[in-house]
Amino acid sequence: MRVMGVDPGLTRCGLSVVETGRGRNIVALDVDVVRTPSDAALPKRLLTISDAVEHWLDTHHPDVIAIERVFAQHNVSTVMGTAQAGGVIALAAAKRDIDVHFHTPSEVKAAVTGNGTADKAQVTAMVTRILELQAKPTPADAADALALAICHCWRAPMLARMATAEAMAAQQRQTYRAKLAAKAKAAKAGAGR
């Protein structure tokens, strides 16, 4: 499975692509950070990110994209920019029918370090170790993008099992409701005689 990890942001947007096979072995294929000037107009910044992501999707052909889920922070404008960048990326994936999964920062930290409150240095150190990189990925946005991809690789089997279980439960509920409706109808018909 080929996973593109994205740490969305307007000023710096981390992009990575990893590949995994069996077990927990993961190979880093590419990592970079798209930068946009803070004094540029928002539509131009989003276009720069969109163009870069489109190029990555056309070059690397990922099976799935893992994007950091935006959550409330102190700076609302930062949250909005991050959400807008993530939306541009999700849209590019949807145009190509590529699945998109969102992971919270604590899920990523827990998957990579075993600690949902790990700091950036710990995440970077573990990403370097897991991927057997010769040097630590910099800046932190690059390491975060790789961490997102790793997180998804390790969580994907569980997510697939959960989706299958939810689908089975929904089917069983539907069958049970149909059975109850049939019994109620039969009871009503029997009472009317």
Could you describe the 3D structure shown?
The protein is of the alpha/beta class and 193 residues long. The chain has one domain (2-162): 2-Layer Sandwich (Nucleotidyltransferase, domain 5). Helices cover 58% and strands 18% of the residues. It has helices at residues 42-60, 76-95, 105-113, 120-130, 140-191; strands at residues 2-7, 12-20, 26-35, 64-68, 99-103. Helix 3 crosses helix 5 and helix 4 crosses helix 5. The radius of gyration is 22 Å and the shape is elongated. The relative contact order is 0.16.
Strand order of the largest sheet: 3-2-1-4-5
The class by helix and strand makeup works out as alpha/beta
Portion in strands: 15-25%
The CA-CA distance between the termini, in Å, is 62 Å
The CATH architecture comes to 2-Layer Sandwich
CATH topology (level 3) name: Nucleotidyltransferase, domain 5
Q: Largest sheet, if any?
A: 5 strands, mixed
Into how many domains do the coordinates divide?
1
Compute the CA-based radius of gyration.
Answer: 22 Å
Give the CATH class: Alpha Beta
What is the overall silhouette? elongated
- Would you tell me the overall average pLDDT? 90
Helix content: 55-70%
What's the number of extended β-strand segments? 5
Low-confidence stretches: none
Summed up, the helix count is: 5
Q: N-to-C SSE series?
A: EEEHEHEHHH
Can you describe this structure in just a few lines?
It is built from 5 helices and 5 strands; from the N terminus they run E-E-E-H-E-H-E-H-H-H. The chain is an alpha/beta fold. Strands 3-2-1-4-5 form a 5-stranded mixed beta sheet.
